[in-house]
Amino acid sequence: MSLLEIIEVPDPLLRTQSAPVERIDDELKDFVARMFDTMYEAPGIGLAAIQVAVPRQLLVIDLQDPEEEGGEPVRKPHVFINPEILHRSDARKSYNEGCLSIPDQYAEIERPDVVRARWLDLDGKSQEGEFDGLMSVCLQHEIDHLNGVLFIDYLSRLKRDMMVKKVVKSRRERDKAAIL
Fold this sequence. Notes:
By secondary structure, the protein is an alpha+beta fold. The chain contains three helices and seven strands. It has a five-stranded antiparallel β-sheet with strand order 1-2-3-6-7. Keywords: Hydrolase, Iron, Metal-binding, Protein biosynthesis.
């Protein structure tokens, strides 16, 4: 299956408000499979459709349990279609976040520790669940993408600008090396 291209800051598409998914069909299921392949290859633990230039309310997450000695990580894929957060806990927790659209940049971001969410699964069935820990952080991070928000938006303007400049510089160097 061919991989999708992950767009990077400062691409303005990343600031787009994603539209709801209207229909769950074989084409969407194939796209979800390609999203997972792209995320695993990157490697990452979450990917929103907008990060591959598709402004739809769709995201995939797989925190992957650590691999057994000498084996592959145990995959636990999750698909969220038209997700919405119903409740955020008052308790907050900081995590060192990164993003496939902001490669090699990380920052401590404080978010609600527990969230309750509702979404459609790949069968079109409504689901609801409560998440904590890394799953909560990842879900909030990816839903932010669907609303045109990046994790760097939680930082000071100075830190945010520095990260974007580093990504742009790194991409220029990468592109230059590819030409040679």
